[in-house]
Structures are given as C-alpha cells and as structure tokens.
Amino acid sequence: MRWEDLEQSSNIEDRRGEEGGGYGGGGFGLPIGGGGLGLGTIVVLGLISWALGINPMWLIGGAEVLERGSGYQQQPYRPGPGQQQARRTSTPTDATGVFVSRILGSTEVEWKDIFSKSGASYRPPILVLYRGVTDGRCGGEARSAMGPFYCPVDQKVYLDTSFFNEIENRFHGCEGKACQFSQAYVIAHEVGHHVQNLLGILPKVQSAQRGMDKTQANHLQVQVELQADCLAGIWANHENQRQQDRGRPPFVEQSDIDAALKTAAAIGDDTLQRKATGRVVPDAFTHGTSEQRQRWFSTGFRQGSVAACDTFKAARL
Fold it and tell me: How far is Cα 264 from Cα 296, in angstroms, rounded to an integer?
C-alpha cells in the first residue's frame, strides 16, 4: 500500500488531547432498560456494528447479543470546559494522524470526482479523532468500545484509533504492515455511510425501519452496511486508477486487498456472534456475514461503479 503521497485532509477534529477523555471509574456499560451492557459485550457489539449508519445507541440497543443484569454501569460523560463549543479542524502532524488525514484526503478526492461526473457536489465529512470518550450528536457521546461510526446528524466520522489495535491483536483481522489497508478500509467504509447520507439513502432507510419489526429492520441495516463495504471498494478502485493515470505504481496491491478481505471476514456478524455466544442468529445480523462483506467489498473494487453497489435490489445479498 502506497499512502505516503496521498493528499492530506484538513477536515479533522483532533480531540485526543482534550481533558475529559478516557473512562470514568466504576466500569463501562450502556444502560439498556434496567440492566446494562458489559464492556466485553459493548466491544463485540461495537465491532459487529463498527460502521454505525444511524445511531450507536439505537443499533446497540437493537442488537440481540445482550448481557442483561451486568454489574457494569456507565459513568456519565461530561465534556470539559469549552468542549461543547465548535472545534477547529486541522491537519494532524503525528504519524497516526497523518495516516488518517491522507486516507481521508484520498476519499475526498475520489468521491468529489465521482459526484462531479454525475453533476453533483460532494461535501466531505469531518473526522473526529479522540481517545476513550468524547461528546457526539448520535447517542450523546462516542466511546472507544463502540468502534468507529458515522453520525448522520452532524455528518462526522468518529474514530478512536485504538480500534486498529483491536482488529490486529484481538480479532486477528490483519497482521503487521498489512494492517495499513485494513485501517484505510475502516475509514473508507465510514465515509461510505456519508456518501449514502448525501445520496438520501440513510434517511429513507431510517424512515422505513420505523414501521418494521426488529428482524426486518436488521435486514435493511445489513443492506446499508454491505453497500458501505462496496463503496469502500469503489474508493480503492478509483485511487488505484488515479495513480496509474499519473504513471505511478498502484495505490494498493493484491496483498493489500487480501488484508482488507481478511478484516471483513474477521468482523462479519456470523464470525463475531459465534465467538461471543457460540451460536449464530441470522435475524440479529446488522452488518452481514463474513462472506457477504468480502464479496461486496470485492464487487466495488472490481467494478468501480456506484451502480454495482445496489444491495437493495440485488438478487443475492
């Protein structure tokens, strides 16, 4: 993967140095009814839904893999002085921040070009870098255990980069340097949700889900997530083509794609449910199976066309 020469984005809110980050004492959990979700369950659910399309609290609350009566209780997050005010965006200078800003910058270049060719304008999202916990418009806060997610309310991607370590070390979704494109895939997937929001897909899905039972709503959510995987593949395809048009080596090689596919397999609903509970409950899927996630990312990368990513009309999901 050759990312060092990609354009950097300045659309980043770097909150990693803010006071109030980290976790409060007394354990970590999201209250559901009278009980709560333990940390282990939150991490699993966060990974099952690491690309949250609408509302982290709604998705986690709607999942099936719950720990009722957990001893963990959530400590309320209280933003530090001035943190509820608008933050400035900038371009980070540390190694992790530079990597994230270059991947985000690449998505901005490619999606701007794709939108432009269809006569539309692309408004890039803001990416929030944080540590532990920060305030957010979806669910009131963002927590590391939720995994990365996109919030359509404020059109921001929330990312605690410690999630990258979880993919490699806990869920074995990649190894060593090969993790770089897996990390880029995570960012591109979340940007894919922003693309869906701009295209009006997310509002339509949210409206439709209000009249559905949980199984139907989950199925619709799977279609949303698999489409975001496909859109991430489109981004990689177009960045490869742009580099080749400039007479440069491709942005990603087959080994990088293989790493992304390994990550997609590691975070498929069936794989994570099996690890968490020893069984698979298809009606509780919110992101798709390992095979589906791999196949839809590959479809986007191979065809490079938004039309190829219509998971809502696909004969085979």
Answer: 10
